[in-house]
Amino acid sequence: MPNDSRQNTPYQPTNQAKRVLPIWAIVSLVGMVFALLVVLCIQSSINSTTSQKTTTTSVMGTPAPKVSLYSATLGGTFEGFRNKFGSPSGPDAFQISASDTPAILISLTLDIALDGNYHATLIECNSADENYILQFLPPDSRLIDKNQHIYYSEQLRYAFAAKYFRGVASGNFQWKCHVDGSFFSDGCKIEVGIVT
Questions:
Q1: What pLDDT, in 10s, does the model give residues 148-167?
Q2: Does the pTM of the predicted model rise above 0.70?
Q3: Closest Cα partner for 171 from 152, 188, 186, 196?
Q4: Dist CA 12 CA 148 (whole Å)
């Protein structure tokens, strides 16, 4: 068998210089990686907190204002009507115009609002003159549909539970007048939700 000189030759290193990083460079590199990880964790924490705050605001909305409807308006209290029109002329009924013949009367339906007090959810008037019923619009009313007499009130939205709006958006209300020539059926009403 031929003699292979490579097999019998011991390993001898070449003269090429070995590249070894000094210890200070390794420590610096590890320190930079650690610092980068800390910065990324802080940034992630900030993004998470911002996301949670945004979600809370969009889900919760703005804090509900306190009910401020105490006057003689839809959503107002019995006392508000008494302050404006005097003593009631019947159970939950007031005479709103003494100069008219027959007398213009309103009757109230009161329900418990979110503040725990009774507030008007329905006002009925024995006159088909819309001017009588329009005085009972809440002060912050915004017209939504002119033909259907649908309005929106932020104060009503925060005054009553959703069930009082009967399937329409909270804060919506409507008024209607009807005339058929009969004293007992002619009239107008304004109601939280849609007039029934």
A1: 999 999 999 999 999 999 88
A2: no
A3: 152
A4: 101
- d(Cα 52, Cα 171) in Å, to the nearest integer? 28
**Euclidean distance between CA atoms 138 and 65, whole angstroms:** 15
What is the C-alpha end-to-end distance of the chain, expressed in Å?
114
Q: Are 51 and 60 in contact (CB under 8 A)?
A: no
* Residue 36: its H or E element: helix 23-60
Contacts 24+ apart (CB under 8 A), 100-105: 100/127, 102/126, 102/183, 104/132
Indicate the SS3 state at residue 150. Answer: strand
Residue 58 pLDDT class (50, 70, 90 cuts): very low
The residue among 157, 182, 184 whose CA lies nearest residue 169 is 157
Neighbouring CB atoms inside 10 A of 180's CB total 8
pLDDT digits (tens, 9 = 90+) for 130-143: 888 999 999 999 99
Cis omega before residue 102 (within 30°)? yes
Give the Cα separation of 131 and 97 in Å (integer). Answer: 12
